[in-house]
Amino acid sequence: MKTYLIIMLFIAPLIGWAQEQPTVSGVVKGSDDTIISGATVAVKGKPISTSTDNDGSYHIAAAPQDTLVYSFVGYQPQQLPVAGKSTIDVFLEPMASDLEEVVVVGYGAVRKSDLTSSITSVKGEDLKDFTAGSALNALQGKANGVQITGSGGPGASPRVIIRGITSVNGSDPLYVVDNVPLPPGTNLNFLNPEDIESMEVLKDASAAAIFGTRASNGVVLITTKKGKSGKTVFTFSGSTGIQTISKPNIADASIYEQVYKTRYTNDDNEPIWNAEDNLKPGDGTDWWKEAVNTTAMIHNYNVGFQGGSEKNVFSGNVGYFRQNSQYDVGYWDRLSIRLNNEYTLIEDIKLGIDLAPRYESWTNTPDLYADIMRMDPTTPIFRPTDEWETNVFNNYARSKHNQVWNPMGRLARLDEKIQHFALIMTPHLTVTPIQGMTARTQFNVNARVQNAHKFEPEFFIDNLEQGERSYIERRNDTNIDWNWTNTLSYMFDLDKHYFTTMVGFTMEKFSTYGLLGSRYDLPNSHPDLRYLDAGTDEEKASGTDTYRTLMSVLGRLTYNYNSKYYLTATFRRDGSSAFPAGNRYANFPSISGAWRVSNESFLAGQDIFQDIKLRAGWGRVGNQSVAGPGLYINLIGPADYVFGPEGTRYVGSAVSQVGNPLLTWETVEDVNVGLDLAFLQNKFTVGIDWFRKRNHDMLMQKNNLLVLGYPMWDAQMWANIGSMQAQGWEFALKYSDNSHAFTYDLGLNMTAVQSKAMELAMDAPILTGAVYNDLAIRNIPGEEISRFFGYQIDGVFQNEEQVQQHAGTDATLIQPNAQPGDFIFRDTNGDGQLNEDDKVFMGKAFPDFTVGFNARLGYKNFDLVANFYGSVGNDIMNLPKVGFYSGENGQNVYADAFDKAWNGEGSTNTFARLSVNDLNNNYRIPSTFMVENGSFLRAKLLQLGYTLPSSMWSNGQLRLSLSAQNLFTITNYTGLDPEVASGGTALESGIDRLGYPNPRTFLLGLNLTF
Amino acid sequence: MKKIFIALSIYAGSYLFTSCEKFLDRPALGQENLDTYFQTEEEALKQIAGCYQGVFWDDWWQVAQFYPASDMATDDMWMNNTTQSQSSYIRTAHYQNPSQDDLLKNYWQYRYKAILRSNVVLERLPESPITNEELRERILAEARFLRAFQYFELVKNFGGVPIIESLSMPEEVQGVTRNTLEECYAFIEKELIAAAEGLPERSKYPSADIGRATKGAALGYLGKVYLYQNKMAEAEEVLAQVISSGEYDLLDNFDKVWTIEHNNSIESLFEVQYSDAVGYNLGGRLSVITGSRNDSGWSWSGPTSDLENAFKAAGDEIRLRATIIKHGDDVWNDLGEAAKNYVIAPAEHKSARINRKFYIPHAQRAVPYDGNRNKLNHRLLRFADVLLMYAEAANATGNDGEARNALNRVRERVNLNPVSSSGEALRQAIRDERRLELALEHQRLYDIRRWNDSNGKKVIANLFGPNGSFVRYNTEISTDTFERTNQRENSNKGTSFNESRDLLFPIPNSEIVLSEGSIVQNPNF
Question: Domain ranges in chain B?
Fold first, then answer.
């Protein structure tokens, strides 16, 4: 149901006196030259006002020294001194942060001024400047309370955290597009950002509770563009650009040789050196240069139209997006179409059809940065040509000194791609049987077919770098989700009491049909043979269906008294198939209220504040995001063995899942208090919120003791194991103004939230963050999540004497295997041994606060868009650094690794000696060596635009733009990308695993409207 | 019309709501449910087959790789591979505290996963409606045998471990502690005795069931369990039962013992069954893991010159050639061209030697060779072992005559002169024989850990440590060119051996941490 609650805003009558005055007249127009009728024109400080006529004209009595105030719903008020003039024509600017804006809430919409809960609304216009496959990348830094952590790579999905983490079970919010909740794990890049009219982030439970079981991480509502009656407007926008990634400071073969050999000689071992000796600077293979292209292209084109008549409104867009990876392989592109139509059949009955077909094509981007950086630089790309074989994949060289597979060989062999075909169909019928009542039914089908291809050639480079057999795989996953939403709303008022009620009933079914076929031993690797039919051995097929269903009743009551006191109550009851019978149903209520102080009579007449509103809310939401159906069941899978004299296969079976029969939802309870202010003629708006979200019965896949013998890896089992809490505040400030030829639009927002694990299963800490067979992250009950624990390094042993002095009270050495040049690990508890009990808190993965700064500045026909995003106070475990300074397992190192390593008394107190055996575990256990400050401030977008003056072309609008995305990042972090490195899951974030960095992108753009 | 529409949708909505339980009932599809299993004999048989799979699992990394690794920790084997990162094995092979290593974690984890499979059978089969009581009893006995096998493997390596006898929920094992070594052995003994009662003799199984646990296997393992506890009289008695059962004998030729043709031979009490079936991971992997890097192998583990010298000192050519392949030799009993002047490149292999027992002649190799389809069954308990265990037990109880008879049966097969000594000299002869007969068959580590030398110390403590005889042989005495030249694996292996620590392996560190210390680490790790 969509209830558009439209209440006129009555501007409090100005109190003053009447007097004979000269008259001022003129016309009020919008900045787009449209005539504004009904605009209010008032004399400042006097009880004189009038409205404009149908032609926008007005007459008002005003003295020459008076100031006139022009205002109209949806436009910024303007004040102009009369200054003795008798004719004043005024152009009003549309309001940037208008309280009259309609904000979409779950199963309906309200005026922004009537909101009682915490919702951030971002217009599609503000998401368009940033060129990315997913609107979430553009949303970063624009919505307070929302932390978005990007990851590079074509089509990658960023991590979204709304108001901290209250569940170990993923932080993804529920995405709802045009009233259709999408299944968990949805990568929002399926949606063309150009199609978006607005994005509403429902942050507190009083807003989100209407979405019940899936709303515990917040809800992102997306409304797509709809038609408008009037002249049909055509738009074209295009941007094309290049992406680059900075090359890290990796050693060449000569430095590599120094480090490599020194590791052995320092341990009195003979180096296992398989290359020429005494290599010179610049020698060897520069793997980065070979594998990573300096530039990769990105394209984004859209053609759209919007228009309609009284009987029929329509909107359509065709978009094409393509992003290449930095490798020769790997790209993602998307062709998407959206057609939204609504027909008025007969009076009060409207039939709408929204259609969104889509085609996507991916070729997999390899996860290769780590290998490229670690690969032995003394190894050439290819073996000598006289050893070449007809199978080209055999001709790549094996690393001479480590186990890294030849990255160029991997790129050459990679043949994985996915095609998506999808169609979203949404017929909907709206009936208005009596005044104020609307019934709406919507049936949505979201059908997706994914066709994945994978081929692996047969090749032999070495015993340990070979594919014994060629392999072909075709995977076909079909998803059919349907969703039936029925709402009935009724709006009425009694005197100054305004009521809106809504009741609804929904059914949803999410179905997955999987089919996988594979074969081995293709005749050869010719592209024409890379099909299942060509495989000659081990013909295999597998597949199953999974279904998840949800059935719900829901309702909402909103009430306001005289636009001063607001109350909203919502209720939802969900039944879900994810849980065993008996645990299936749950109720999710919420209540919230607001007090518009600015509408109180005691504040009438002041013109400093245009809006003062206090909000408070409470609600309960749920989370059912478990990995699959039937997690409460003990399952059986195949476990074959062999019996008989001939060694015959015997079909066996064994337990494959131990289920948890007690599984049920997790529930988040949330309180929110907020204050909204608008002042100085709405030039400034401020929003401040404080919130606390507390999770109970948290669902989690927990590592259990291995002695249980569960078939799941590390004995992991889903359970309702505890409680988490996120508490914090957020702040948003906007300033909009214009003077002379300048326009300003500035926004600053900050979010500070601390997420804590309150109770965990059996009160035990949850340890994650595998670092060299140790676990570096401890999630301790009552403490913040994802904190790093390890050994405190107190410098480097400079001589044997220091090694001997580092001893317990009984003179036994604390580090018996240490020698000069090794790290001194602190025996924190002073018990004379180094063990688990000595680990100290080293840092935390989540920031103290995140900050977004957005500016849109205009001067005449030029405009500048600047978006900054920052994260402050988080630490990163720079795990790659360890290998790049130790050269462990013969991997390549940073160019300064040899110079920085300890090489004698007094040389350094921060880096250990090079060692092949590393008996002291300098670089094998989590320690303060690995932890760095991960704070950063990134210039996400700087865009300079130029709009062709209407004097040159009056039939439409043409804007050219030049933009730089991720142009620079201010940080002390020494790894590839502090943003990517800070990602991860709730309980395991902030460990740098060398993921695909966010590229720096330069784009040229063109927008055309006519 | 509007009213009709509203009425219709309310009607439809309420209709659907009444059938909501059905709408919301969505189990996992395509998978069977344990709680409704064990309805038929076939289902019970499938489950016990799954328990057998847990003996060695279906790939190299769960438990199989641990067996050569245990030999690397003895005087019989080097780690051997000197071209690759040795980090997976070196801390086990060289006594450098492997508590953080996946090698041990996987071994521990997959032994307990296999125990759960037996626990499921033992808990659920008694309630099954099947009517073939004989079959039910046999399967239960098989499950008990396999569970005892799993616990024995754990106890040998880690000492006392938590005994888990059921499918439990996590809260039921909160604060679980290790059972003592005595409790564990008592449990294993009880299980093996019960298994021996319920299992048929090997000859009573139909041919299609070859490979299943037998009464002989249960008694053989029971004998070994007694022997490891120094319960010599009990060991002697139960092993005598096996010998006199008439079910087992030595093969006539030692060369046949580790060949595909003699899988499940008369000498076999228990072995891992392998198949060359395509696409099911049912073949053995140790041939590849321990093979020469120059012949599609991974060269993890290689015999020492010290072991070779032991064969030579005994004048034992027959078993030497069937146990050790040395670089440049023609491989014994492989007629293929590739086996002539066989390459085990000294630069890539510490000792330029590999294990002949797991080596598969080229003509019999699965194609591709690395495809986990090799049919050489892995012998876990064979009759020669039973004879030597019996000899050891009989010698300890003073029955030297019986001991000599058993010992000389083993020696006779390889044309060695009978031993006529007695007492402590006979004890040494039995120990020497055990090393040669069962070399590289994963017996040595546990033997040298349990045997005391005449100086009162453990044999292993005399071999290893800074002044250990094996360490001094390699660092000072050895003239073996291969081992002395290739120092990419350091010849001082075992110098860091610590008698107060290294008689057991450490429990995986993650288990100590996850249990919050209720599972206590072995001393000094």
Answer: 38-361+370-514
